[in-house]
């Protein structure tokens, strides 16, 4: 799987269902050997940054995501 497409899948999961569900999805992809440990680590770092965003930042991020 391509790293960018995996990232988009995980971000969509985060936006729809939240941090823990996105984390479970990422762990599932790793368990199925669809991503490497390095990819999982990088995506988890980005996911934790998304989790720590304030409400204003998250709304802005959602608007940016819709435009792209």
Rg:
12 Å
The tally of helices reads 4
Overall tally of domains: 1
**What structural class should be given to the helix and strand makeup?**
mainly alpha
Q: Sum up the overall morphology in one term.
A: globular
User: Strand fraction band?
Assistant: under 5%
The share of residues in helices is: over 70%
Overall strand count: 0
C-alpha termini separation: 21 Å
Topology pattern, helix = H, strand = E: HHHH
Task: Report mean pLDDT, rounded to a whole number.
Answer: 87
What are the segments in which pLDDT stays under 50 over at least 5 consecutive residues?
Answer: none
Largest sheet: none
Descriptive keywords:
68 residues; mainly alpha; 4 helices; 82% helix; 0% strand; globular
Characterize the structure shown.
By secondary structure, the chain is mostly helical. It has one domain. The chain has 4 helices and no strands. The protein has helices at residues 3-17, 19-31, 37-51, 55-67. It is globular. It starts with a helix and ends with a helix. The model has no long low-confidence stretch (mean pLDDT 87).
Helix and strand layout, with pairings?
Elements: H1 3-17, H2 19-31, H3 37-51, H4 55-67
Helix pairs in contact: 1-2, 2-3
Quick summary:
By secondary structure, the protein is mainly alpha-helical. The chain has helices spanning 3-17, 19-31, 37-51, 55-67.
């Amino acid at each position: 799987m391509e790293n960018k497409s995996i990232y988009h899948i995980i971000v969509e999961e985060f936006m729809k269902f939240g941090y823990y569900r996105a984390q479970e999805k990422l762990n599932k992809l790793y368990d199925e050997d669809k991503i490497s440990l390095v990819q999982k680590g990088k995506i988890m770092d980005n996911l934790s940054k998304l989790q720590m965003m304030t409400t204003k930042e998250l709304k802005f991020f959602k608007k940016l995501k819709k435009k792209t």
